[in-house]
Write a structure and sequence with these properties.
20% helix, globular, single chain, two-stranded antiparallel sheet, 8 strands, 6-stranded mixed sheet
């Protein structure tokens, strides 16, 4: 079966003069997938670290190798709109919002959990509540 790829780019949501999010050359997610109506869709991923420059080519190589050697990370039911099914899966898997920006799928990846060799690092856009002030 042919392995195909879906790329999700990182956007910087800090407001610019045009209030338009900008795609930044870091972070990013590559989803490798294959399947058919009988088997469903088999998925494997390669997630770029937030401090590294995102490369479609490297992401494709890593995700494809993982799919071939480790097998699928997950299976989803076949959908005629495979791209939409993969975006839904990634939003659910990572607890992030993915939007269409121009012609690319994008996310700010604020709820993604990265595994580090020494410890788990959690990034969140949820701010801690400020301490209560006494009158």
């Amino acid at each position: 079966m042919t392995i195909k790829f879906l790329h999700i780019y990182c956007i910087n949501e800090s407001k610019t003069l045009t209030n338009d999010p900008q795609i930044v050359p870091k972070d990013g997610l590559t989803i490798a997938y294959t399947g058919d109506k009988t088997l469903g869709i088999m998925i494997q991923i390669a997630k770029c670290h937030p401090h590294d420059v995102y490369s479609e080519r490297v992401g494709e190589q890593l995700a494809q190798e993982r799919l071939r050697s480790d097998g699928p990370l997950d299976f989803i039911d076949w959908d005629d709109d495979v791209e939409a099914a993969l975006v839904w899966w990634a939003e659910d898997f990572y607890s992030i919002e993915i939007v269409r920006h121009n012609i690319k799928w994008c996310s700010d990846f604020m709820e993604v959990i990265y595994e580090d060799d020494e410890e788990d690092i959690v990034e969140s856009d949820i701010l801690e509540e400020p301490p209560m002030q006494t009158p």
